[in-house]
Amino acid sequence: AYSLSKFLSCYRSVRASLAALISRCRYLQFAIGGLFGDWAAVAALEARKQGREYAVHTDVVRYKATLELARGTKLKTQVKARVLSTLMEHYHKWIIKNCALGLFHGNDCYSAYSPFCDNSYLIHDIHLKASNGISNLELSEKIERTASDQTIRICYAGRIDSMKAPLDWVQAIGRARDLGVNLHATWMGDGPLLDEMKAIITSLKLNSCIELTGFERNRDELLTRIRESHLMLFTH
Fold first, then answer.
1. What is the pLDDT of residue 141?
2. What span, in angstroms and rounded, lies between the C-alpha atoms of 43 and 37?
């Protein structure tokens, strides 16, 4: 229900379902992140109506992201984005001001939203255990290898999606290559910008520097790649 018409047509029935669920739950946490179709935000409204405390979790400053995605588009699209962004900004701030706990993923979210909730925390959802980290032996061997192979190994694991800025990632690798850095970069993941990412890699003549593995189903292989790398480069 991400269109206004569908959202409004579903609103009453979904709100009623949320009300019943909220009344039965002991703890409430809502991952807000939109406007039309943001049922987590609707749930927060219902929780407040019932006098219930709730936590808010978010991993993107959506009103800012909406403006970024509209940059360089047609004027009509930019005007629409500006209106939606303004509505989202005030809507989300109101919900956060009334929450009992703010869990903000990454510093962008924390900086934008923590001023509106006294009980705020900067978090990162990383599905790893300490045992998944590099061992002392592996680290020693990795250090020794730098004596014979001084290639800087860069990696990233995630969707090839505009939210992850994969095209900026490629350009950053290209800039480092142009400055004379000896590097090899690997992106593990798949997504809607894969073809565009491949095209820009080719246009910048980075095929020998960048490897796209696609979606890696083998968790152990993915972790091994990360442990073998020297840097994990984020552009989002």
1. 93
2. 11
Q: Domain containing 182: what range?
A: 130-232
Q: Which residues contact 206 (CB under 8 A, 6 or more apart)?
A: 170, 173, 174, 177
Give the alpha-carbon dihedral of 165, 170, 176, 178, to 10 degrees: -140
Residue 9 structure tokens = 């047509």
| Distance, CA of 156 to CA of 165 (rounded, Å) | 11
Q: What is the pTM of this model?
A: 0.69
**How far is the C-alpha of 5 from the C-alpha of 9, rounded, in Å?**
6
Q: Can you read off the two tokens belonging to residue 198?
A: 């491949």
Give the torsion sign (CA, 144, 148, 151, 153). Answer: negative
Q: Same domain for 113 and 170?
A: no
Nearest to 38 by CA among 81, 92, 97, 117: 92
Q: How far apart are CA 162 and CA 149, in angstroms?
A: 33
Give the confidence band of 235 by pLDDT, cuts at 50, 70, 90: confident
Non-local (6+) Cβ contacts of 221 within 8 A are none
CATH classification of the domain holding 208? 3.40.50.2000
Under the banding of pLDDT at 50, 70 and 90, the label for residue 175 is very high
Contact 162, 226 (CB under 8 A): no
pLDDT band at 125 (very low <50, low <70, confident <90, very high): confident
